[in-house]
């Protein structure tokens, strides 16, 4: 809220809040970019003891970091880690099976920045995500136009998500403005 030192809210914070309003205990939830596991942990908490989280990351260091975070929280049995590109997402979940899917693009904080998400894999994964989501489900994507290569990927994702409106998805975009560097952008799409 205005006056709060955390205003404007971070895109990750808003994405977590929006996902929490959709996800129900027992659901299948997907983290397409597990990284250090902050988003995976949020999803594991929402999934409850009977739910399931798929957490994908192409980088061994990320899977290890995310696994440690989930293990420390005592929630390992809820999370299935997959060390593969999210371009393989369609191999891991059935159509209309997940109620929320999160993408947090860019690089793994604290690691070499060479290994960033790529436009081609991201778009393949987003196509898969759009069919894996259940009707009423929510897709969130955080893009980083300020990262090297991130501006091209962000524009491609914006173009991709805009086409969903032709199929009656409700879509939204959030970011801080008037920042020193291009601010991260949160995109969200609600499946009809
Ligand atoms: C910004 S980080 C994710 C942060 C994470 N969600 C968290 O909560 O800590 C982006 C992650 O995407 C991963 N990544 C890059 N290309 C990928 C791909 N093709 N498939 C899956 N993950 C990928 C990177 O290894 C990195 O860990």
User: What is the strand content?
Assistant: 15-25%
Number of domains: 1
Task: Give the mean pLDDT.
Answer: 94
Q: How would you spell out the order of helices and strands?
A: HEHEHEEHEHEE
Q: What does this 3D model show about the protein?
A:
With 192 residues, the chain is an alpha/beta fold. The chain has a single domain, classed as Rossmann fold. Helices cover 33% and strands 22% of the residues. It has a seven-stranded mixed beta sheet with strand order 3-2-1-4-5-7-6, with helices on both faces. α4 (119-132) links the parallel β4 (98-104) and β5 (133-143). α4 (119-132) packs parallel to α5 (150-164). The mean pLDDT is 94. S-adenosylmethionine binds at residues 33-39, 56-59, 62, 85-87, 104, 106-108, 115, 117, 121. The site of S-adenosylmethionine has 22 residues, from α2.
Topology (elements, then pairings):
Elements: H1 11-22, E1 28-31, H2 38-47, E2 52-56, H3 60-72, E3 79-82, E4 98-104, H4 119-132, E5 133-143, H5 150-164, E6 170-174, E7 185-190
Parallel strand pairs: 1-2, 1-4, 2-3, 4-5
Antiparallel strand pairs: 5-7, 6-7
Bound molecules: S-adenosylmethionine.
S-adenosylmethionine binds next to α2.
Quick description:
The chain is an alpha/beta fold. Helix content is 33%, strand content 22%. The protein has a single domain, classed as Rossmann fold (3-Layer(aba) Sandwich).
